[in-house]
Amino acid sequence: MILEVAILYIKDNQEKDFENNMRKASKIIAAQKGYISHEVKKCLEKKNKYILLVNWKTLIDHEHIFRNSKDYQEWKKLLHHFYEPFPIVEHYKSIKYE
Amino acid sequence: MILEVAILYIKDNQEKDFENNMRKASKIIAAQKGYISHEVKKCLEKKNKYILLVNWKTLIDHEHIFRNSKDYQEWKKLLHHFYEPFPIVEHYKSIKYE
């Protein structure tokens, strides 16, 4: 399992519109191959900051299959215009203890 | 419920020692008032980067009760010397839809 992490900064005064579009976009991501679960949360300390956390079965499910899909075009259309700067997305895995 | 998020950068070549100490420290955090769950994960893209996610019942449980406790001194002793730079910790809450 891979955790996708994106810290999102939303353009001033667009937080409510972003939240509404993210609610629509949640249905898109939840329907993808390899999707396990996701959360979108709002920062308490900075009003235009959010975090997106998505659990995927594999990195390929996110980076290759989802990002090359038609659904991703829909996701982009709903969300990408809210971001400034454009987010860096990273992936995390559980620590393996020997 | 409040999600604590800390992005952690570990000093070069200290990743294994950090992981071992974090395993010990996990028992400390799991015993705190208001603790719900936590995860520590390793970044795939940057070798010395980790994320700590902790779910707390309230912000006070984390910021006041835990940080002013004796256990926090133990937590610090186990972990803080690995960080460079010292992490910014932020808190996130669920989005409320009207």
Would you kindly provide a written description of the structure presented here, covering whatever features stand out?
The structure is a homodimer of 98-residue chains. In chain A, helix 1 (15-30) packs antiparallel against helix 3 (70-79). Chain A has a single domain (2-92), classed as Alpha-Beta Plaits (2-Layer Sandwich), CATH 3.30.70. Helices cover 35% and strands 32% of the residues of chain A. The radius of gyration of chain A is 14 Å and the shape is globular. Chain A has a four-stranded antiparallel β-sheet with strand order 2-3-1-4. Chain A has three helices and four strands, in the order βαββααβ. The mean pLDDT of chain A is 96. The first copy, chain A, has helices spanning 15-30, 59-66, 70-79, and strands at 2-9, 35-43, 49-56, 89-94. Chain A is an alpha+beta fold. At the A-B interface, strand 1, helix 1, strand 2, strand 3 and strand 4 of A face strand 1, helix 1, strand 2, strand 3 and strand 4 of B.
